[in-house]
Amino acid sequence: MNAGPADALHDKHRLPEIDRLRGLVMALMALDHIRDFFDADTLRFSPTDLDHTYPFLFLTRFVTHFCAPTFTLLAGVGAYLYGEKVKDAGALSRFLATRGLWLIFLDAFIVSPLWSLGFGRIELGTLWAIGCGLLALAGLSLLPLRATLGVGLAIIFGHNLLDGVHAADLGAFGPWWSLLHDRGPLPLGVPGSVLYPALPWIGVAALGFGMGPLFLESKKRRDHALHLGGAAALVLFVLLRASNIYGDPRPWSAQSDALFTLLSFLNVTKYPPSLLYLLVTLGGAALALPALERMGKGLLGRLGGALDLFGRTPLFFYVLHLYLGAAAALALALARGYTLADIGAFVKSSAPPAEFGVGLLGAYVVWIAAVFVLYPACRWFAGVKRRRRDLWWLSYL
């Protein structure tokens, strides 16, 4: 039996591939952050610095590149589906505005202390970017759907034209520009920095909103469109990347061997996310969606169920895994005899001792353990959300 639009939005008729894809990117995001906490190379150099990295580290980082774009796109899709559920443009706009502000608040005051080690700095990262996307959608959702989709595509394909505009050249306006398109310090002398300039992420959220009607189509039509769109995005990525003409401020080049040349080809820019970065990540996500729906039974079915659970509790998972990872890393360092002052000095100098942390392979082990620990906590919270629909504020967690 084909579910109508209203049925498709009811909890028991949720599209499993959306929750599973969201859960998958949450798990991969945990890998990225556990690596930050437990692999000392994180402090020494960027995992995409081809002069210092190694293939296992680079590819670990590359796989986790898929997280933020996919989650932001699905936030846009979810916004559209919520609008179809409430059938009230004003209510949708208010919800998106308050949800966006809430995410920005969480990033500034709940997540930032982890990355700044409690030094009182505000580091605007993933939740800031998604929050800005939802704030923008609060206005864009009032436009015709094609206009919102057009705005999203225009930002995604056109924002690299702004690569030559740098905050350092704009004087007092520079920090404000950093909020939009160039990493840098916060405005008004607020201590901290912008890690995720917002403009491209607004484009991704608007694209997701514009794609929303696709998820009310039949499975056959939806999967066909996702396969076609994902393949087209990847082909366009290869063509534009090979040309080195447009789409990323960091050109690729021949390296010492074929493997590192491939890594150079894949070494696209995340801060802010370039057109090529978004093509390869969102193209891959589009191809993954239909496959996640067909996970079947047995081991794959149980894995799909776990991903579905994480996808239903993403914000809870996100904040909890950060504090769990940071606490475990701190406990390990203290158990090894390091002091808080030592850890702060390592972070500031980017020169921890060789034995600090557990290495990349050890970080993978900790990541797997963390995911197992998070599963029962997320299952409990999902149960609370399911039972207590009378608590409106649970929709913000």
TrEMBL record:
InterPro entries, per this entry? HGSNAT_cat
Q: Which residues cross the membrane?
A: 62-83, 95-115, 127-145, 152-174, 194-216, 228-246, 274-292, 313-336, 356-378
Lineage, top-rank taxon, reads Bacteria
Q: Does the keyword Transmembrane helix apply?
A: yes
Tell me which UniProt keywords the record has, alphabetically.
Membrane, Transmembrane, Transmembrane helix
Question: Heparan-alpha-glucosaminide N-acetyltransferase catalytic domain spans which residues?
Answer: 14-225
Q: Which protein, by its recorded name, is this?
A: Heparan-alpha-glucosaminide N-acetyltransferase domain-containing protein
Source species taxonomy:
Bacteria, Pseudomonadati, Pseudomonadota, Alphaproteobacteria, Hyphomicrobiales
